[in-house]
């Protein structure tokens, strides 16, 4: 029981030491984000903007089966859609790298090393 108490005490001590720098850095990140938000003129979408986007999406989905819909899309729109898809795929890849904690492959033991244990 004494080892558990020592471990818990050490963890609490470490958390206490780190809480100051973590809070400080979180406040700094918040201030930077606020400055970017103001400088870029960002704002959450209004209800009208959300409703407009919703209606446009519904209209597009309903007309997606028609060949004319795809013919009326410009090359620039296809390019933008491709760039958005590439961006989404890149975020997916970064998520995979973070999840694996490795750039290539998963940390899996080979069959040969597994056979040695039996």
From TrEMBL:
GO terms for biological process: proton motive force-driven ATP synthesis. It is found in: Mitochondrion membrane. GO terms for molecular function: proton transmembrane transporter activity. It holds the Pfam family ATP-synt_G. The keyword Ion transport applies. Keywords: ATP synthesis, CF(0), Hydrogen ion transport, Ion transport, Membrane, Mitochondrion, Transport. GO terms for cellular component: mitochondrial membrane; proton-transporting ATP synthase complex. Its main location: mitochondrion. The keyword Membrane applies. Belongs to the ATPase g subunit family. This is Uncharacterized protein.
């Amino acid at each position: 029981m004494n080892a558990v108490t020592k471990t818990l005490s050490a963890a609490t001590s470490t958390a206490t030491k780190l809480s100051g720098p973590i809070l400080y850095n979180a406040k700094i990140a918040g201030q930077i984000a606020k400055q970017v938000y103001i400088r870029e003129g960002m704002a959450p979408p209004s209800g009208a903007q959300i409703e407009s986007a919703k209606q446009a999406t519904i209209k597009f989905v309903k007309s997606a089966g028609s060949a004319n819909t795809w013919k009326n899309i410009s090359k620039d729109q296809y390019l933008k859609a491709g760039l958005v898809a590439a961006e989404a795929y890149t975020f997916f890849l970064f998520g995979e790298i973070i999840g694996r904690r490795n750039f290539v492959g998963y940390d899996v033991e080979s069959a040969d090393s597994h056979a040695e244990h039996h």
